[in-house]
Amino acid sequence: MKNQCVVALLLTATSLPVSLLAQSIPSLKDAFKNDFGIGTCLNVSQIEERDPKTTAFIARQFNMATPENVMKSALLHPGWDTYTFEMADKLVEFGQKHNIKINGHTLIWHSQLPGFVRRIHSQDSLRTFFTDHIKTVAGRYKGKVFSWDVVNEALNEDGTLRKSVFLQHLGDTYITDAFRLAQEASPGTELYYNDYNNEQPAKRAGCIAIIKKIKDAGVRIDGVGIQGHWHVGKVPLAEIEESINQYAALGLKVMFTELDIEVLPRNVQGADVGQRMTANATSNPYPDALPDSVQQQLAADYEALFKLFLKHKDKVSRVTFWGVNDGDSWLNNWPVRGRTNYPLLFDRNDNPKPAFYSVVKLGK
Ligand code: XIL
Q: In the UniProt entry, which residues are flagged as the active site (predicted)?
């Protein structure tokens, strides 16, 4: 009995301050509840709720979520007739349980494709994969996900269509076809086109051409996602504002779908997951902590961004961060593996950074 009391006391002493602290941190989703949704991407460990404190933290801070990987075709559809829905189903349950809307990511993307698709060399076979994949996946999550990134990253930087396996075999109508199939399989779900750097003029023009083509075919598209993988001190605010206005003028919702701000040196622009950079003596400059000057610049950049989002809250429907905290971020491993990056609002222990306070103070 005495031992049990000691254990109980120890537990209280160690866990109470942490959860109290989490409760005392303002909530992003509450701060912006009258403005736009606040999302995060979720990885397998978070979806499986391996750490209850993390689960509680996510449920308190976010009301929308995108799977970081588990709904990509390589993971969902590993063989011609094989689908592995377990993790994606768990994500849907996670959303229902915690009142978090799920954005499916993504039906058609040239990257993270199953091995068998990379070996396809005929139009017929690719058409079969394309149609089956969209019908099966969008159909399964009909009424269960709020929205889909139907097509991801179909554009080159100059606004022309990327020479993906889809363009090569199916021709330039494949994007419209994907939206048509998604709409048939999942009529009540919002359908989006998603890309990085599509706030830049040439790529934006290409994106607008895609949107017009879909609409001219009488097919539905509800929104456009600007991924928002930007660099500290170089956030293109004017182009972002222009893009919000131009996309909204087409009647679309505008979303920032994968927001993070890179603080490490990088000679790779954009967010092409296929690109890599070799590590050298200067590529991981802050293994222990972010210098104060960079921390302040990061906070200023996030503040300016959120001021812009709020100015256009009638057009911006969601802002999703690509990770819950700095430790989760893909930027620790891209384009160089094993770096220590600091692109988000929460540090590796879920403690708010100055950037968090510079953002949350703007809400409500
Ligand atoms: C990234 C994930 O974060 C990584 O875990 C994965 O290894 C590669 O993909 N654009 C997208 C996202 O649309 O799906 C990518 O996510 C980041 C760039």
A: 258
